[in-house]
Amino acid sequence: MGADRRALVLMRHGQSEDNERDLFSGWRDPALTAKGIAEARAAGRAMRASGLHFDCAFTSGLRRAQATLALLLEELGQPDLPVQKDIALNERDYGALAGLNKTEARARFGVEQVRSWRKSYEAVPPGGESLAMTAARVWPFFEETIMPRLRDGARVLVVAHGNALRALLVRLDGIAPEAIEDVNIGTAEFLVYGAADPAASLALRRRPASSPPDDVAG
Does the pTM exceed 0.85? Predict the structure, then answer.
């Protein structure tokens, strides 16, 4: 398999029941909403229309990501694609915030404190993980498990969660940790990377991609 075929697509899951209710999810395991199901299918159709095809896929241990992946693979015509599930790709653990409505959390802890817990790289919610702590499990998994497939020239699809993906973008896109709070990945939004230099061991450059926009955060 030639290195010039190398491609990576990162995608956030479709809208979940917690997204719909504006709740902090973290490691909670809500199902997709009807809208989330439609978003996942639309993303699969958009990938197919863009000519995307995959050799393997990775997802988290949470059903909103797993269901999103299964639905889009149906639309891609690849329902039997090899899939590896791993909790290393789970959403960040929101600790005491999990299950709280965001408005309620702001009233209880203060607007700026909640914003810091949600968006900054280092802030740790009570009993939970910072984005830096999330990166400390996501990036090693990427390096040890996903990167070897990319180096072999595989076309890899990763369906995960907003903060798990933001943690990857710090390294993949060279985003400064202090700037990552301005980065948001909407539900069912996907990012496409191609080989910036086929001769390099791993040099990925983000390419434009059509995706169903949705700014629901969480």
Answer: yes
Active site residues: 13, 91
Token pair in block for residue 137: 């499990």
How is residue 123 written in tokens? 């802030």
Q: Cα dihedral angle (71, 76, 80, 84), rounded to 10 degrees?
A: -70
Q: Cβ(32)–Cβ(13) under 8 Å?
A: yes
- Sequence-separated (6 or more) residues with CB below 8 Å from residue 211: 11, 43, 46, 186, 188, 189, 190
Q: What is the pLDDT of residues 128-187, one digit of tens each?
A: 999 999 999 999 999 999 999 999 989 999 999 999 999 999 999 999 988 998 899 999
| Residue 188 falls in which region: left (phi positive, over 0), alpha (psi -120 to 50) or beta | left
Asked whether the beta carbons of 28 and 98 are under 8 A apart, the reply is: yes
The two three-digit tokens of residue 134, written as one number? 């999330």
